[in-house]
Amino acid sequence: MAVKSPILIHTEQFVLSLFASKLSMEFKFHTVGHTEEIVNSCKFIGESIGISEDEMELLLVAAWFHDVGYTETYVGHEEISCLRVEEFLNSHQYPTGRIKLIQGIIMATKMPQNPASTLEKIIADSDLFNLGTEGFFVRNDQIREELFLRLGRSFTDEEWTKSSLVLLEKQRYWIPFVEETIRPQLNQNIYQIKKILGT
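Above: the chain's sequence. Below: its structure in token form.
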């Protein structure tokens, strides 16, 4: 998509401003940088499998808004994101039917994932794209710190490493292109964790 649609321009500006003013500094993983990574992953996957510009708009609006709920709550943030995107898009006279599609795409990121449409599968895969990247271990440490700061949840190194291994071993991507692209590094990350655990 060579040119951003007006609603995408407004969406990006709104979310960046909201995160800058409302997102707690205790968020170490779910930052504006994470949202930008998801937007870029969605665009990459969408372009790679040939979705239309119309579909891309829906996907990217959802990607920008998918973690907006974190500015208000931790648990159940997806539902808050859906409320906020509806308010925002209604203020721009966006079609109701398209708003519902965007809300469905946002909810596809809720764990455990169960996406139905292609666009829902793209955002679901994008939200867990980092599991199969070289940056996984840095991101994983950020999530651990965030869980402690936001929810008071602490883990021993062994507990965290074992839970990370379970997460990686269970991960399957919904879009075949993503599975093929990510699988080699995902397997490498699994190997590295097993080395740490001595298994």
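DSSP finds nine helices and no strands in the chain.
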